[in-house]
Amino acid sequence: MQKLEQLQRKVKNAEDLQSIVRTMKLMASVGIHQFEDAVDSLGDYYNTLERGLQVVLSKEFSEARPFLSSGNEGSAGIIVIGSSQSLCGPFDESILTYTLDKIREDEKKGAQFFVLGERLTGYFRQEEEVLISKQFILPGSAGGINGLVLDLLTGIEEWQATQDIRSIRVLHNKLTGKEGYTPRSQHLLPLNKQWLEQLIDQPWPSNNLPQYSADGHALFLSLLRQYLFVSLYRAVAESLAAEYSSRLFAMQQAEKKIDERLEKLNRAYTHERQSSITSELLDIMAGFEAAQSMDDCNSETG
Fold it and tell me: Does the keyword Cytoplasm apply (predicted)?
């Protein structure tokens, strides 16, 4: 009976854990769609931004020259996006390894880092070659990305003003399928001259060429800031979608293990329960036979 009670407790614990895992699966699934929608919503705005750069640079390309590569880009600033919570598999280990390989490959000694995510920051603090300039907390919803990106832009301006950092890159994981992700690197600054020249050479979609009366320099700087904003927003949203996908996959694996465990426990419980019932029946039959024998003996002696 004691073993039966132990099995009942184990089954109850496994069912409670199964309920928690299913809730986390649901939350991860909602998170993936939320951040994928955030990425998709940037498409039209990014195209409009490119058209704006095309108009301004077609008239005065020199506005972009201070932001093109000059061979002397000062120190490097690297923004790395990880996760803030556990239960997402080797998500942070993957981007950490990729980042270390990149800085060794590019020989970026003395690079400054912005690290997004407390969990990833813990891994980075164990690496002597990484100088963390600032740590950022990742938002739990798409609505929090705006504020985070504005803080990053302020940090980039401080880098440029105080440490002469003109080469800036963002590294993060990106979804590649329902269960997979891969690390990627994107250069933010200096601007890619070939990309800008291709923008200028693109045909305009109508016969009405746009005109503007605002100051060209101020307009270009505004468009550049928006370009950095959209690039960082997309990187954060893509990384969060990949993180939630990794967490969903981990929960699916955990649910599978729990199901297997529950099946074994239920089988053991059924077997133990059957043995207990059989034992009780045998005891009853033995008692009945003993009582019947006593009655027979009493009848013969009487």
Answer: no
